[in-house]
Amino acid sequence: MKKILIAFAFILAWGAVAPLAWAQPTCNVCHAPTAQAISQGQHAEVGCVRCHEGADQHASNPTQIRPKVDVSPGNCGECHQLIYDDYRYVGKVDQTPQKSIEWPLLPKLLSAHPFAKDYREPREHFNMLEDIELTTRGKGATCYTCKSADVYRQWNKEGGINYDSDVEEMLTTGKITHPITCVNCHDPHATETRIVSFALKEALDRMPNNHPGQRDPINTLVCAQCHVNYNFNPPEKTLEFPWRKVADMIDYTSETDFWRQHPTGGWTHPELDMMLYKVQHPEVELYWESPHHLAGVTCVSCHMPQTSAADGTVFTQHFLGSPLNNLEQTCTPCHTQPPEQLHEMVKGIQDEVYEIMRNSMDEMAAAIDMIEETRTAQTFSQDLLGQARDAYFIAHLNWEWIAAENSMGFHNPQEAKGALQIATEKAIEAQQLAQRALDEPDTAIDIDEPRTRNNLIWILAGIALAVAAFFIMRRK
Predict the structure, then answer these.
(1) Is the Cβ–Cβ distance between 122 and 90 less than 8 Å?
(2) Of all helices (H) and strands (E), which one includes residue 269?
(3) Which DSSP symbol is given to 410?
(4) Cα dihedral value 22, 26, 31, 37, nearest 10
(5) What's the angle, vertex CA 144, arms to CA 74 and CA 58, rounded to 5?
(6) What topology does CATH give the domain 77-322+329-335?
(7) What CATH superfamily is the domain 340-439?
(8) pLDDT band at 95 (very low <50, low <70, confident <90, very high)
(9) Closest CA to 229 of 291, 301, 299, 146
(10) What integer pLDDT is reported at residue 107 of this predicted model?
(11) pLDDT of residue 469
(12) Separation between Cα atoms, residue 10 and residue 16, nearest integer Å
């Protein structure tokens, strides 16, 4: 009887582990490179079925049954509990208020752009899917390449997601169900940090040897998958990263046309009656060539430091907030000053950038008023108005490069202050040129010429009638 019980217990135990033990060798037959990567990584003892539901049925009928791919953070969290809890802690953060509350000139500077009506401070990865659904701005399938872990593996695949996919259909059919999760930055097979963004891969492929991004290690590039300036590319039906510093963006806008075809790249400002370039959070580009960048500090160094749990267990922080939240982990490993002094130094830099930005916006708002007054006047100089608009274009590009970036200039203080100074100077230049356009109108151009011609006709007609009446009265 004892032998029978032991045998029965062995059968039950084997039944519990058999799927894991069986699935891995079976998958190896067709997926040898992946199996090799798994065998050399930290997931060597994790069976394929752990992340691929239906893998065993797929193995028995590979052409008809496809296994599912589990990219949920909770799946990883069953083993990486501390990191998972840290990552999803931000679920308690409420929607932030509109930026226009603090920056009342934003709607004027971004007039007619969707960001003029809905522009909030960013939240964490855990909130990405919720936040994009709450926004009143338009959103397409391509938006989700930086909002969901479900997109990269389905992009441009038959029955999956592509540039023209319907967002509501993707959500209701379950093609998109998760925000940014572990797999966007971590290869679950080789258990190493990776890049999945096709736009970043393309930008890296065409990057010249002297490009400042050449020094970026993987711990910066994983963040560069999303924290960069980007444009949708309607002709190619894809996403493009200009991958340039702000000083090179004037050349980019003159050399590239597709940015004019989608509001992620450009839109027509109604008061200026001209197209402006829309900048999108260039954190990585601003960081290039900064003191920290040149010193080899990565995004992970400051935003994902090593921290300790209550029991002393050390893990990498995945609550991706400001380094100011825990200066002892982020700054003091390199800086000798006490945390309070470091905090004061950082805030001092940000406050200085803040004031320069406020001044830039004041001058830009005045430039908008002056250009609108000029272009709606009866007479003005077309050439000088064109110069005023060109100056404003540069002002807007340099201002928004810092305004749309999320460090209030700290990622590169010198460049941030320099860009805002250019914005201020060009805004003042735009005002002066628009005023000259009013004061020095083109003699050959009179936008009220039709009205003047009509008035002259009526005057001549009146004179003719008066003369006729005079002669008629004389005959009488």
Answers:
(1) no
(2) strand 266-269
(3) T
(4) 30
(5) 55
(6) Flavocytochrome C3; Chain A, domain 2 (1.10.1130)
(7) Butyryl-CoA Dehydrogenase, subunit A, domain 3 (1.20.140.10)
(8) low
(9) 146
(10) 97
(11) 56
(12) 10
Please count the residues of the chain: 476
Whether 176 and 150 have beta carbons less than 8 Å apart is answered as: yes
Whose tokens are 């560069």? That residue is: 224
Q: How distant, in Å, are the alpha carbons of 57, 333, 371 from that of 270?
A: 59, 50, 11
Task: Look up residue 95 and give its DSSP letter.
Answer: P
Positions of CATH 1.20.140.10 in the chain: 340-439
- 450 vs 46 pLDDT, higher one: 46
Where does the pLDDT of residue 461 fall: very low under 50, low under 70, confident under 90, or very high at 90 and above?
low
CB 220 within 8 Å of CB 297: no
Query: Sorting pLDDT into bands at 50, 70 and 90, what band is 16?
Result: very low
Residues of the chain with CATH 1.10.1130.10: 77-322+329-335
CA–CA distance, 82 with 401 (Å, rounded to integer):
36
C-alpha span between 379 and 441 (Å, rounded)? 6
pLDDT class of 462 with cuts at 50, 70, 90:
low
Instruction: Find where tokens 């522009």 sit.
Output: 119
Going through 270-348 in order, the beta strands assigned E by DSSP cover 274-277, 306-308, 314-316
Residue where the block lists tokens 């590979």: 62
| Confidence at residue 23, expressed as pLDDT on a 0 to 100 scale | 45
Torsion of CA 79, 81, 85, 88, to 10 degrees: 0
What is residue 291's three-state secondary structure?
helix
Q: Which amino acid is at 182?
A: C
Q: What is the reported pLDDT for 89?
A: 75
Extract the tokens encoding 17. 């582990």
What mean pLDDT, rounded, does the chain reach? 88
pLDDT in tens, 382-429: 999 999 999 999 999 999 999 999 999 999 999 999 999 999 999 999
